[in-house]
Amino acid sequence: MTLWLAGSLAVLALIDSTSFGTLLIPIWLLLGSERPRVGRMLIYLGTVTGFYFALGMIISFGAYAFMDQIQAALATQAASVVQLLLGVGLFLLSFALDPNRRAKRADGEPGKIARWRQRAMGDASGGGSIPALMGLALGAAAIEAASMLPYLGAIGLITTSGLDLAGRGLSIAGYCVIMILPALVFLVLRLVAHRKVEPLLQKINGWLTKNAAGATSWIVAIVGFLIARDALWRLGGIEWVVDQIGRIT
């Protein structure tokens, strides 16, 4: 593995580490009790890591096995048209991701959410449901799978790097570990200096909760624009669009 590839994967993994499932939910769980339950946190993070690793290996193996066919299919005009429509669709979707609308739906839910956290994590004396905790982890990872753009980019880099199966597996595993490092750091800080670190966790939790939807909207819009622009360039630019409109009319 080259230094450039390793650095690129590390940057993408750190971007992924700030997502809803890898940072916001862990911080939310850490704030649920005076002393966090390390075992439960590790189960949550391990479930998220295992999900992403398995999904990454499946995608990487499939892409590697059918690389020639995929490249040939993507080179067709039909694929470019589908890509253009996908990009436009993502761009339009970004306007539907309204943070204010989500905030209104969330009003009045803190009691229900707190009970959910209690059911998953329990308290210092025990309790809590491991299946509920793993379900929370799998649910968060599955929801984010549809928008895991940095991870898909990383898998693309790994697949086209020429690494063998073992190398691809180690690269994806390393990516997943880096992805949960910030959550692990906060877990350690919460254990050794829980009173001092709680205000910081509260601020991070508040900022992420407030801005997550807006950030997602911008990311989806930018990605949609880039996908559509690339497809339009391969189709022939604006002239192709004008020609298609002329044929319809």
From TrEMBL:
Cleavable signal peptide: none
Keyword Transmembrane assigned: yes
InterPro entries associated with the record: Gap/Sap
Chain segments annotated as transmembrane: 6-30, 42-66, 78-97, 130-152, 172-192, 212-228
Keywords: Membrane, Transmembrane, Transmembrane helix
Pfam families: SfLAP
Protein name (database record): Sap, sulfolipid-1-addressing protein
Species this chain originates from: Microlunatus parietis
